[in-house]
């Protein structure tokens, strides 16, 4: 599946979940629901996947960071349920993309009245 199609599917499922549950839930609730929807659609999803730190050719730490979701081994999905997405949240996702060597990430803040206002695409310029 092409990255744009895949990210579109992820966003559609997120909108479905947001329509059903609304804003204000814990991030972990949205994460489990999105994982459920993606897996039921036949997509490969890894939840809470660890990213290692490689320094000078050596793995210094194999569980330094944890991704919320990795979909089809291509797109990192970072979920939030916060009042406002801050620049640090986007930097966090970009760091994950670089460390995991993935091309695209989605930052989805479920604590918005309209979910489309809480979706940010982040591209890793490999």
Describe this structure in words.
By secondary structure, this protein is an alpha+beta fold. It has one domain (3-123). The protein has 3 helices and 5 strands; from the N terminus they run ααβββαββ. The protein has helices at 3-21, 27-40, 87-100; strands spanning 45-55, 58-71, 75-80, 104-109, 119-123. It has a 5-stranded mixed β-sheet with strand order 1-2-3-4-5, sandwiched between helices. Helix 1 crosses helix 2 (27-40). It starts with a helix and ends with a strand.
How is the topology of this model organized?
Layout: H1 3-21, H2 27-40, E1 45-55, E2 58-71, E3 75-80, H3 87-100, E4 104-109, E5 119-123
Helix pairs in contact: 1-2
The helix tally amounts to 3
Overall form: globular
Strand elements, count:
5
Largest sheet: 5 strands, mixed
Category from helices, strands and their pairing: alpha+beta
Summarize the structure.
The chain is built from 3 helices and 5 strands. It has helices at residues 3-21, 27-40, 87-100, and strands at residues 45-55, 58-71, 75-80, 104-109, 119-123.
Note the main attributes of this structure.
126 residues, 5 strands, 37% helix, five-stranded mixed beta sheet, alpha+beta
